Amino acid sequence: MVVPLVLLVIGTATALAGWAAWFVVRDRAVILRQLWGGAVVEVLMVLQAVVALVLVLNGSGSPEPGTFWGYVVVQLMILPFAAAWAFAERTRWSSVVLLVACLTVVFLEYRLLQIWMG
């Protein structure tokens, strides 16, 4: 895995989590701009998955490919589900859902890096 890309995903997801936390504190629902921020994080994760696939095809890879790709697939599903939930739930809890989803992405990024490094 490319460490700068991992750090970029972690940084953007953390920033979005902070923004969602601010909305939780202020008792506000998620806004469309936050969902666009989630889309940016999602695009970065898709890019990261493509880079990981290219690295695997070139001979690099995780010592635990099943676990690694399982984490990648789950990670790619988290923000779309959270965005759909946040869009449907127009209360403060939509911000809580986005916050938890972003923190989950940050944790999964950390675990992906651990798995990749062996």
From TrEMBL:
Alphabetically ordered keywords of this record: Membrane, Transmembrane, Transmembrane helix
Transmembrane segments annotated in the record for this chain: 36-56, 68-87, 93-113
The keyword Transmembrane helix appears for this protein: yes
Name used for this protein in its record: Integral membrane protein
